[in-house]
Specification:
Helix content: 25-40%
Strand content: 15-25%
Radius of gyration: 29 Å
Structural class: alpha/beta
Largest sheet: 8 strands, mixed
Low-confidence stretches: 5-23, 90-94, 560-665, 672-717
Length: 717
């Protein structure tokens, strides 16, 4: 690309150069030069908007190559990168045959003008920075922003020790008072000295120690420390905890894997033939549990060396990869799918939306099956959403962490085209003096599960997974117990790899890569869930996925092993056997979230399809109606009407009906059902009666009323 001439000042009448609006003022003061601080050019994404409605409005398709050339010729715009398919497989069938995404430097005014000139056919948005979604320490609520510049100070020295009193180097130590906190890292002798201004020993509120690896964290409220002596902090080895006994010398499954019943799968279920991409901070292949990882791409450093994905300076990607596919050996942690083909796409530190778009482009070209995204951004990105949708149409399932702000689900977890995972913990899986106790919430179910305090929530949550005190691999060859939705998402990613490798559906009808394949995978994972009853389904979604159910060797909710479950395949079969019982079996097995509901209304209360997502609702509602109507409907309508319908258009109707029932509206209804007050729920197999379906019945929550009434439904994807 030709070098653009720098903008020069124009001569003024006095003979000095006057500055153009884009030129910073510079004054020469002899020994040093001075310049005014002002906003630098920002990085923007420029892409064609791919929306069928634009063509329906009579707008001609945008010639993006002309736009690209104009941007490259503009003197005040610098095009620094272009993301486009590098191979035919990346372009054909994925709506990116022409165009791509440009990354350009420009000021805000120029970006606004460019968006207006695009007349709605051009996406122009800021290239946002992304962040990893591990649960970092949180400051006490009363920390203020006042920085004392004078007065008394409190100096305290700590020594961090480990097993046998050995010093622990590299441990992060945080000390909180009533003003600003102090922090430091222990040296080779385990020593660290902290200074707090305007504080005293009596005003200290919290002490937090985070070791790099091999030890539990330490957290002490109202710590009793001395400014005159060295304060010793003795950390506990991970192996001291009963469930990690003899670790890592003896290989174990984490508590999260056992909770999802991975230990009950056949030993041959190892994820063979499935490709999984971990878009994160890289993967330390020096670790004994990660030596099998041989594919990767460093997006951040691509201008110099794309092979540096094996350097994981912040350990986050290695930790996630260990959960997904840790090597099955005699030591360490075994992952969900140790035989899956792992691709490590390095995006951190410094990841941005443009680089995530490129990482997904890599996944499309390499025909990845599942992508783990333990990351998030500040605001939704239309350019990224288009790329996520392209990936979905290419058969790529994106499993995304919900976020750790404790608020609404963060993007891309809020996308309707991904499976979003919240984090839960379980009591008695970590020491009481560790920082993991800070993640506890008051509601704990009968199995000891609790929603992690940091986990984001909302109707976008599909499932929950273990995300507190998760032990996995970190560089160089160590282990660490971390918290975060970043740790929860890999549990579901690993399970997704097992489902694709071993569930019968993906060895027959759904072998071909498509968006329908992705939706079926998401559906199976949701159907497998055991409910986590914490009183707020926005924090747990359908519940905790169950591995034997998900791979098809144990019955999903309301179904028996081997029962057909293909979306849209049941209506024709059901109608052919009689309307009374047919709707119970057909719609129940083939229509997704509300299948069992319709089945039990039109047929017997013991409908064979208790629903793709409604769990017990299908078998609980409508038993009285079914018992009264089934015999009459079967004899009078079932056989005469069922056979012609089944033979002529039953399968087509079933397919369309199944797609409709698996759509956003039905998912909203399923979500709203889970939000009903607990005292309004009947046990599975009992009758609730038709009154519970009355949109005007007082038992319905506002959410369910909205889901049942299309005129009120909004805000659900």
């Amino acid at each position: 690309m030709a070098t653009k001439p720098e903008t020069q000042g124009t001569p003024s009448p006095s003979g000095t150069a006057s500055l153009s609006p884009d030129t910073p003022a510079v004054r020469d003061s002899g020994a040093s030069r001075q310049r005014n601080v002002r906003q630098r050019k920002s990085q923007f994404l420029v892409a064609p908007r791919r929306h069928g409605a634009l063509q329906m409005m009579g707008l001609a398709p945008l010639n993006f190559s002309v736009v690209e050339q104009a941007l490259r010729d503009a003197p005040d715009i610098d095009v620094v990168d272009k993301i486009a398919p590098k191979q035919a497989v990346g372009a054909l069938g994925t709506s990116m045959q022409e165009g791509g995404v440009l990354v350009a430097l420009m000021n805000d005014e120029k970006a606004s003008a460019l968006a207006l000139q695009g007349q709605g056919q051009l996406i122009v948005e800021r290239d946002q920075s992304l962040q990893l979604l591990d649960a970092n320490y949180t400051q006490p609520a009363m920390v203020s922003c006042n920085l004392p510049v004078s007065g008394a100070s409190f100096t305290v020295e700590f020594q961090v020790t480990g097993e046998g009193g050995k010093p622990v180097a590299g441990a992060e130590v945080y000390l909180f008072g009533s003003l600003l906190p102090a922090q430091g890292v222990s040296d080779a002798n385990g020593r660290v000295k902290l200074v707090l201004y305007g504080e005293s020993a009596s005003s200290l509120r919290q002490l937090y120690v985070k070791p790099r690896s091999d030890y539990w964290s330490f957290c002490q409220q109202q710590p009793d420390v001395s400014g005159d002596e060295i304060n010793t902090i003795a950390l506990r080895p991970l192996s001291e905890w009963p469930t990690l006994k003899n670790f890592p010398r003896q290989q174990l499954l984490t508590w999260g894997q056992r909770a999802m019943r991975v230990d009950q799968l056949p030993p041959t279920y190892r994820g063979q033939g499935v490709r999984v991409a971990v878009i994160d901070s890289g993967c330390a292949t020096s670790h004994a549990d990660l030596t099998q990882v041989s594919h990767g791409y460093d997006i951040v450093n691509k201008a110099k060396d794309t092979t540096t994905w094996t350097v994981d300076s912040i350990a986050h990607g290695s930790h996630c990869t260990g959960v997904i596919a840790g090597l099955d050996s005699s030591t360490g942690i075994r992952g969900f799918a140790p035989d899956a083909e792992i691709h490590a796409c390095k995006l951190f530190p410094g990841g941005q939306v443009s680089q995530l778009i490129e990482a997904l482009e890599y996944c499309i070209e390499k025909q990845i099956d599942v992508v783990n995204l333990s990351l998030g951004g500040a605001e939704p990105s239309e350019a990224l959403e288009q790329q996520i949708l392209r990936a979905k149409h290419a058969g790529i399932a994106c499993i995304v962490a919900a976020g750790n702000s404790g608020g609404p689900v963060q993007y891309p977890g809020s996308s309707p085209n991904v499976l979003t995972v919240a984090a839960i913990g379980r009591i008695n899986e970590f020491p009481g003096d560790s920082y993991h106790t800070q993640t506890l919430t008051p509601q704990i179910d009968v199995n000891g599960f609790f929603a992690a305090r940091f986990s984001c929530y909302g109707p976008e949550i599909a499932v929950c997974a273990p995300g507190v005190a998760i032990t996995s691999s970190v560089p160089d060859n160590n282990f660490a117990a971390w918290d975060g939705t970043s740790m929860a998402a890999p549990h579901v990613t690993g399970l997704a790899a097992l489902v694709l490798a071993h569930h019968p559906d993906f060895r027959t009808a759904l072998r071909m890569r498509s968006a329908e394949r992705v939706e079926r995978l998401f559906q199976i994972i949701k159907m497998s869930c055991q409910p986590v009853m914490l009183g707020d389904p926005r924090r747990t979604g359908f519940g905790l996925p169950d591995a034997p159910r998900a791979v098809g060797i144990a019955p999903a909710v309301g179904m028996s092993v081997g029962q057909p479950a293909m979306a849209g395949s049941g209506m024709g079969m059901g109608m052919g056997t009689g309307m009374g019982t047919g709707m119970g079996s057909g719609a129940g097995t083939g229509s997704g979230a509300i299948g069992g509901l319709l089945g039990s209304i039109a047929g017997p209360g013991s409908s064979t399809g208790a629903g793709m997502g409604m769990m017990s609702m299908g078998s609980g509602i409508g038993s009285p109606l079914g018992s009264q109507m089934s015999s009459q409907m079967s004899s009078q309508l079932g056989s005469p009407l069922g056979s012609p319908l089944s033979s002529q258009f039953g399968s087509h109707l079933g397919a369309h009906f199944g797609n409709l029932m698996n759509g956003p509206a039905m998912q909203a209804l399923a979500q709203a059902y889970r939000e009903l007050p607990m005292n309004s729920m009947a046990p599975q197999g009992t009758s609730m009666g038709m009154g519970s379906l009355d949109p005007f019945a007082p038992v319905l929550s506002p959410q369910m009323s909205m889901a049942l009434n299309p005129a009120l439904r909004f805000g659900y994807w």
